[in-house]
Each structure stands twice: as structure tokens, then as C-alpha cells.
């Protein structure tokens, strides 16, 4: 059975690096846990780090967090749906919002539950996912700031999540100006300017973050240490907090090209053979006990650089081990580093065992 392993020491070292970085800059931050898909084993590991604030996009995950530690401050990091208003108020201390109608329902529900519910007003900054348009922000704020049982914790934005728009210094300055505009217009204080996610970490390391941006939600940098501007690993962070291990269930020398009439495979792809292809070539292939049901091969990278991923079907993956200096046998494990989406597929699968090193 294939399994994913979390390396506790590397996770702790990444957390310490990030926590120190944020504290030195007087920035509040929370860990985005949606990658963990509510896995209790891994949520406990995050809580054990001393995290006080956790963000997720699934109410069931927030419920688990509150059950593990009711003192953790929880945030629901997408606009709430009408059907989930009651449970969002119950399990999320804060939610991200873009619709007046939704905030009115949150206000009514918070009153019923005798709670104060915090909101962050998300602003559209060009990535074209969720967000109030900048020219409508003052009118939006005016309609919600006096609603009962609602506390406006701040304004925020999401960048790089849909269209790939990067959180440049100019973008974050613009976000900071919205804070100043609201405060001047309504004579209020906006506690948080939530400047984004892991993609903005390189700006902080270069001290290019506007001082008003004082809150971040971090997931990918914690688990993968990735600089999303360059694609490289941020110096001081580990890129392999998670690893996948899959077992070899067959090893055979086979032709490089399929034999017979070709049609679509299980994934809807058709293999093409060029006229100049040498049909006599072969390679040593290993079949692994994992497939498309649990992962997508493009998000995996073998630890052994001499192993090449060939393709996968629903429950098995084929790799070429012809150039490997290590001699593999049936029953051996082959390990893979993971990209964010690769880990997300695996952690969402009930068929992949989750363990801690």
C-alpha cells in the first residue's frame, strides 16, 4: 500500500523559520490547513507547533480543529454559502466575505448563537477570483460595519490563486491605501490588512512589504518551502516536509511502444507512434501500487533522478528504471517529492496511508 509521510523535524524547522520572520516584522499569521484535508494525525502535528490561528476552506476541517483545541482561532477562507451559515458561525471565528446578503445572514445567525462573528472583506485586485471591486468598497463597508454581532477584522485579497497575478509591492501598496481610505472616511481602525498567502513571502524577505500589510495566511511555504516567484526553494526552508512512497509490484523489460490497434486510454489520451519511431527499443519498467485515483503524475518528482515516470492508469503507475544505479526488486519502495497539488490529491485519498516520521 502506498503511503505519504510527514517529516516532523522538517515541518518544525519550517514553522520556526516562518514564525521568526513574521515576528521580526510584527506580522500576525495563521497556517492554512486545507492541504491536510482534515487528517487528524496531521492537524495534531500543526497544533503541537504552537499555532494559534488556522485557516481552512472546509467546515468539517474547522470542526475537527475546534474539537482538537477550542482555543485555536479559526478562519473560513472562502465566501460562505447560504446553506452553511449556521455551521460557519459555529466553527469559524472569522470568515472571508464579498457579499452584503451573506454578511447579513451571518449577522442574524451570530445573534441567534449569541456570538460575535469576525469578517475580512476581500477586495478584487486583478486575479479575478473572489473580491469586492475597489470602486464599490466604501459603499460595501458602509452597509456592513454597523450590522449587529459582526466584527470587521480587516480587509484582504487573494492573488495568484486563479489567474496567476503576482502580489507585487504595488499591489500591496494599493491594498494598504484601501485601508487608509476606509479609516479616513468612517473614522474607524482596520486591525488587519491580510496581504495574501505564501506567494508574498519573497517580498517580506526582501523587505518590500508595505508596513500596513500585517496579516498573512501561509500554507505552501510551510509545507513546501517554495518561492512562487522563482520556482526555487526559499533558503532556510525544506521542500520535502511530505514524501510519497509507493511499492514496486512488478519489474519487467518491455517494449517502449504499445503493440496493437490504439484507442483512448482510461484517462482519455491516445498514444501516438511516429513513422520514424524505432519499434524495437525496450526499457526496464517497474509498476507501482498507486494510480490516477490517488494522484496525478505531473505533480510528482522521483527522489532518484535516474527514474522516469512513464504514465499511470487508475490504480497503477509505470516508471522507467533502466538508468537507475540502484537495483530494484519487487517489494521495494520508490519515493517521490511532491508539488502542492500532488500532495493535495494524495491527502484527499482514503486509500493512501498517512504517517509521521
TrEMBL record:
SUPFAM superfamilies: PLP-binding barrel
Pfam families, per database record: Ala_racemase_N
Cofactors, names only: pyridoxal 5'-phosphate
Keywords: Isomerase, Pyridoxal phosphate
Occurrences of domain Alanine racemase N-terminal (ranges): 10-225
PANTHER family: ALANINE RACEMASE, LYSINE RACEMASE
Name this protein carries in UniProt: Alanine/ornithine racemase family PLP-dependent enzyme
Organism in which the protein naturally occurs: Flavobacterium sediminilitoris
Amino acid at each position: 500500500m502506498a503511503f505519504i509521510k510527514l517529516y516532523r523535524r522538517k515541518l518544525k524547522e519550517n514553522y520556526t523559520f516562518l514564525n521568526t520572520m513574521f515576528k521580526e516584522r510584527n506580522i500576525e499569521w495563521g497556517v492554512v490547513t486545507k492541504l491536510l484535508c482534515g487528517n487528524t494525525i496531521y492537524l495534531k502535528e500543526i497544533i503541537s507547533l504552537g499555532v494559534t490561528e488556522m485557516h481552512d476552506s472546509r467546515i468539517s476541517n474547522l470542526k475537527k480543529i475546534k474539537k482538537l483545541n477550542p482555543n485555536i482561532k479559526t478562519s473560513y477562507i472562502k465566501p460562505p454559502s447560504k446553506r452553511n451559515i449556521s455551521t460557519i458561525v459555529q466553527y469559524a471565528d472569522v470568515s472571508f466575505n464579498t457579499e452584503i446578503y451573506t454578511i447579513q445572514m451571518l449577522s442574524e445567525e451570530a445573534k441567534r448563537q449569541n456570538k460575535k462573528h469576525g469578517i475580512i472583506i476581500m477586495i478584487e485586485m486583478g486575479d479575478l477570483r473572489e473580491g469586492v471591486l475597489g470602486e464599490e468598497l466604501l459603499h460595501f463597508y458602509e452597509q456592513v460595519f454597523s450590522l449587529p454581532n459582526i466584527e470587521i477584522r480587516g480587509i484582504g485579497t487573494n492573488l495568484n490563486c486563479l489567474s496567476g497575478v503576482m502580489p507585487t509591492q504595488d499591489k500591496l501598496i494599493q491594498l494598504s491605501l484601501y485601508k487608509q481610505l476606509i479609516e479616513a472616511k468612517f473614522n474607524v481602525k482596520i486591525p488587519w490588512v491580510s496581504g495574501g498567502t505564501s506567494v508574498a513571502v519573497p517580498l517580506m524577505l526582501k523587505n518590500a512589504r508595505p508596513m500596513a500589510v500585517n496579516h498573512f495566511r501561509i500554507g505552501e511555504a510551510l509545507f513546501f518551502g517554495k518561492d512562487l516567484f522563482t520556482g526555487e526553494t526559499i533558503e532556510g526552508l525544506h521542500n520535502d516536509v511530505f514524501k510519497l512512497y509507493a511499492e514496486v509490484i512488478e519489474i519487467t523489460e518491455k517494449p517502449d511502444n504499445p503493440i496493437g490497434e490504439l484507442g483512448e486510454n482510461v484517462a482519455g489520451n491516445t498514444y501516438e507512434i511516429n513513422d520514424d519511431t524505432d519499434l524495437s527499443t525496450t526499457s526496464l519498467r517497474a509498476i507501482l501500487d498507486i494510480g490516477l485515483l490517488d494522484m496525478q503524475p505531473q505533480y510528482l518528482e522521483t527522489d532518484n533522478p535516474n527514474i522516469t515516470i512513464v504514465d499511470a492508469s487508475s490504480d497503477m503507475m509505470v516508471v522507467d528504471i533502466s538508468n537507475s544505479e540502484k537495483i530494484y526488486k519487487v517489494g521495494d519502495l520508490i519515493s517521490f517529492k511532491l508539488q502542492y497539488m500532488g500532495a493535495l490529491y494524495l491527502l484527499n485519498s482514503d486509500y493512501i496511508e498517512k504517517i509521521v516520521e
